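2 proteins. here.
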Amino acid sequence: MNNIKNIFSIKDLENLSGIKAHTIRIWEKRYEILEPMRTDTNIRYYNTENLQKLLNITLLHNHGYKISKISKFPKDKISEIVKEISNPKNANNHAISNFKLAMIEFNQKLFFTTYDELLKEKTFSEVFYEVFVPLISEIGMLWQTGTISPAHEHFISYLIKQKILINTEKVQIQEPIFNDKTFVLYLPENEIHELGLMFLNYEIQNKGYKTIYLGESVPLENLIDVKKYFSNITYICYMTVEPNVDKIDEYLSEIEKISDADNNFLLLGRMAQSISKEKLSNNISVYSNIAELTNSL
């Protein structure tokens, strides 16, 4: 039985398009841009076709088209104009809309065709920073508001991970250009949000450095083991939800025992931003985001 979500409330449309529900209602009443269905109790609901049309209308509206003009376009004309809008910003927005549709419909083909179109004009790094990062941010909001389920989030995250792994493999087969240091990348215990760390691993290898990727939920004693095999290690820890704010100081104390003249720590992620820099030793640094860290190498 196919239970893919294909019915949306007006609040879902607001969350997915960024257009306020009040505005959507005005557009419906004044310009008849959508054709909502109604329950027996007269509550609006919408299908996937309505959602796709609204996403396209939103793109045109943000590009300067007046809603009064858009409302007079035939359906095919709206899609045609969307395809003609080719400047990078709008191409990114269109791709994000397509990825959201792919997620809602569990549509792998739409994900792959959208991704392939982006690669015709962009590098993989540009796709990640310009499209995947804002997409991931939106997904977090959509999950919190109940517009999508955890299954939707896992589906799209897996496809993004797949692309990171494919591109990482391409650079892994090359010999490192710089052999003066080794980067060890890991997530702290109970941390499973891996996308940012995976991309960081790709970026560092793409710059010609050697990396050791340990992945999610790594106990600190495992880091000590790595010291037996490599010298001049830079550990990179991505903290999204772990350790908790009330345990950050304790965690810093533990990694200070591992850091020394030959081993330093770079920290980033949402939880790392709560760290007071006055508490950091000379061998521990905090970065705001992936780009800031990679640009410092």
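next one coming up
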Amino acid sequence: MFGIADYPSFVAAIIVFLLIPGPGNLALITSTSKGGVRGGLAATFGVIAGDQLLMWLAVAGVAALLSAYPPAFRAVQWLGAGYLAWLGAKMVLAQPGDAPVLNIKPHHYLQQALLITLLNPKAIVFYMAFFPLFVDPARHQGLTTFGVMAATIAALTFLYGLIVVLLTHRLAERLRASPKISSRLQKLAGVFLIGFGIKLALSR
């Protein structure tokens, strides 16, 4: 289909990819809890933008470059590790009354989610290594093939993000009545981000 090897499997792989816990999911949840549905949807579009950029970079041959020059990939890993750990530390050390780690303005959430996606090892590995496996060399149709793949990824990510945002928003409304619980959840989210950063830094 459009030069895609086993399109149903490609769709299934995207869904599994979205369901795997990671910084992207945490960005959606945190953005929604801080900025409501608008903030969550802005973060969703940030994730979509990051995914699209990584995919088209892979199309442009960045995957081959990183494969030929491993230090470039390590540099990306360290940059991502440092960013995630820094963000997590800010969330852990935040005190009651401090300005939110993530600005409540939706356009900031989009930027935040975009950066997290671009530095997310799960996304990098998928688009730079796993994603090309679904391109059928014998039936490849150039930009049409990649365009269909990009549209599929964007549509599935939007639907997934919308579900996560709506569920998180419903839960967040109940948690706002207890600032202490909200503060603890923010610190827990920060610990997870630090963990993601450490895992990324130690990965080989």
